[in-house]
């Protein structure tokens, strides 16, 4: 099953940004929060080793910005929130995703509208 | 963190040292973020071993921050290095086979024709100066053998140059392809 596991991980990598940005859109989050949230959905379960670098890249690209906030339970936490560019990017990705999903479903189920 | 677990400390040091792709200014922030992650996770009850295992080896985690890894989506497969070497090895083998044919062919033609062509043309010129050198069993108009020799010589010379250019082109393509593979 080597082929499909590679495809699988590619698909997950593709949607991971979308999910992370959506989470952050709801409310600013810090890294550990995002990791645990995503871990709740096994299909999306991307490791910490993927999520943290991805957050950093999104910040580098100007889609996320960070701010530190004191935490009662320990060291200060670095929170992420969407920038204007990030919000626009997310909205674009979201509509792309919707179109993509309906196209794929169309092919997958041969136009059988029961599944759409 | 005053009482940091030495295993964690070592991990973070190794992690920080391997972050060559991150600017020094960012490096502290990146390390701190992972440090906080470990603290939160262990604070939530996980064992240090589990947390570090899920983070993966410190060097590999650090490599995930490099730009080209992020763009390509993260090469997390362990055997990525092996498959790359297989590609290079098979490339060298096939190019070696091609080279065994192409290089002697083009090189031989190239060198042989250019030198031979020059020689023939030169011979034709000399024969013009010393017509007595022309030995032919049949009667040929004066100058014909010489002109023929010069013409043939020049044509051979030209073909030889073409062969050499083709050879040079072959080497250029080969180098480009190998560089492309090595850059992965």
Written overview of the protein:
- The complex is a heterodimer of chains A (116) and B (184).
- With 116 residues, chain A is α+β, with helices and mostly antiparallel strands.
- Chain A is built from 4 helices and 3 strands, in the order αβααββα.
- In chain A, strands 1-3-2 form a 3-stranded antiparallel sheet.
- Chain B is mainly α and 184 residues long.
- Chain B is 77% helix and 0% strand.
- Chain B is built from 7 helices and no strands.
- In chain B, helix 6 (80-129) runs antiparallel to helix 7 (144-182).
- The longest helix of chain B has 50 residues, at 80-129.
- The two termini of chain B are 39 Å apart.
- The A-B interface holds A 9-10, 13-14, 31-32, 35, 47-50, 52-54, 56-57, 73-75, 77-78 and B 1, 22, 26, 29-30, 32-37, 39-41, 43, 54-56, 60-61, 64-65, 69-70, 73-74, 76.
Label this structure with key terms.
heterodimer, A: 116 residues, alpha+beta, three-stranded antiparallel beta sheet, 3 strands, globular, B: 184 residues, mainly alpha, 7 helices, rod-shaped
TL;DR?
By secondary structure, chain A is of the alpha+beta class. In chain A, 62% of the residues lie in helices and 16% in strands.
What's the helix count of chain B? 7
* Structural class by sheet pairing and helices of chain A: alpha+beta
Q: Low-confidence runs of chain B (pLDDT<50, min 5 residues)? A: 72-79
Number of helices of chain A: 4
Sheet bearing the most strands of chain A, described?
Answer: 3 strands, antiparallel
Shape call of chain A: globular
Helix content of chain B: over 70%
Number of strands of chain A: 3
Q: Whole-Å distance between the termini of chain B?
A: 39 Å
Coarse structural class of chain B: mainly alpha
What does the radius of gyration of chain A come to?
A: 16 Å
Query: C-alpha Rg of chain B, in Å?
Result: 34 Å
Strand residues, percent of chain B: under 5%
Strands of the biggest beta sheet of chain A: in what spatial order? Answer: 1-3-2
Oligomeric status:
heterodimer
- In total, how many beta strands of chain B? 0
Residue share in β-strands of chain A:
15-25%
Terminal Cα span of chain A: 28 Å
Largest interface, counted with CB-CB under 8 A? A-B, 21 and 27 residues
